Amino acid sequence: MKHQNILITGATDGLGKALALDLADKGYHLLLHGRDQSRLEEVADQVLTANSAAKVSTYLADFSSLESVRQMAQNILAQERNLHVLINNAGVGAGQSHEGRRLSQDGYELRLQVNYLGAFLLTHSLLPLLKASTHGQEGQGGPRIVNVASVGQRRIDFDNLMLDQGYSGINAYSQSKLALIMFSFDLSEQLEPYGIPVNALHPATLMPTKMTLEAFGYGMASIDEGVMATKRLAVGKEGGNVTGKYFEGQRLAKANAQAYDTTARQKLKTISMKLVGLQPVPSTF
């Protein structure tokens, strides 16, 4: 099956950009997100250069601002009739070792917001569109959500969620990625009755992306390896048959033990709903 509309967040660099270029000639309508309009237009032009028949739409948002995420979601809901794949890829890396703690525009620890809270808010905001897109998909598989996490995961201390104490970029990044996995597991249970798989993955180890090179100074796995693993869940046949799982590359793996703690996941969800200003989502959306 070819899903029609695929939203890729963080599409102006690294894995997101590589995914967009790889999918350019596959017949999809690509909805590309970035936080810089000129870079968004550049990627869209590159997609069209790769395939002049490709259909591309761009959406601007800075995930360090929840209001910007809300506006992006409203724009998508107003302009798109369907959403078949949501790939939450936007993020910020661990940064350089000397970099201090930074806050988002909303006053939250930056990496927690950009890597997790932004995706949390965007996904919840787009649930009605994802649910509506299940219609007419019988026998073809429903919409899918893929959350790009990391093998780097740090247990969440709910008494120090914003890392006011013991801050490091690695701690902040690893906590935010575990939060994204916990969110994936929770959401998969909520959406299972609607046939919408939700999975998280570590696409590949130290792909030579801008954020990896900034933090570590070198890369290991190729971006193509990460593209293949992400595509498998986003548009591959296998991705329609599994939900609520964590993958390392194309291999099913175990996340940090806290991800399987239902009490911790419920606590994270309750806190996250409050932080992003959402009311609890009823079972009927």
Q: How would you spell out the order of helices and strands? A: EHEHEHEHEHEHHEEH
Q: Helicity range of the residues?
A: 40-55%
As for the number of domains, it is: 1
Calculate the mean pLDDT score and round it: 91
If you consult CATH, what is the topology?
Rossmann fold
Tell me what the CATH architecture is.
Answer: 3-Layer(aba) Sandwich
**Total number of β-strand segments?**
8
Unreliable spans are none
Percent strand equals 5-15%
Characteristics:
285 residues; alpha/beta; Rossmann fold; eight-stranded mixed sheet; 8 helices; 8 strands; globular
Description:
41% of the residues lie in helices and 13% in strands. By secondary structure, the chain is α/β, with parallel strands linked by helices. The chain has one domain (5-276): NAD(P)-binding Rossmann-like Domain (Rossmann fold). An eight-stranded mixed beta sheet has the order 3-2-1-4-5-6-7-8, with helices on both faces. Helix 3 runs parallel beside helix 4 (110-132). The radius of gyration is 17 Å and the shape is globular.
Task: Explain the layout of strands and helices.
Layout lengths: L4 E4 L5 H9 L6 E6 L2 H14 L4 E6 L5 H14 L5 E4 L21 H23 L11 E5 L20 H23 L6 E5 L7 H7 L6 H12 L11 E3 L2 E3 L8 H15 L9
Parallel strand pairs: 1-2, 1-4, 2-3, 4-5, 5-6, 6-7
Antiparallel strand pairs: 7-8
Summarize the structure.
Helices cover 41% and strands 13% of the residues.
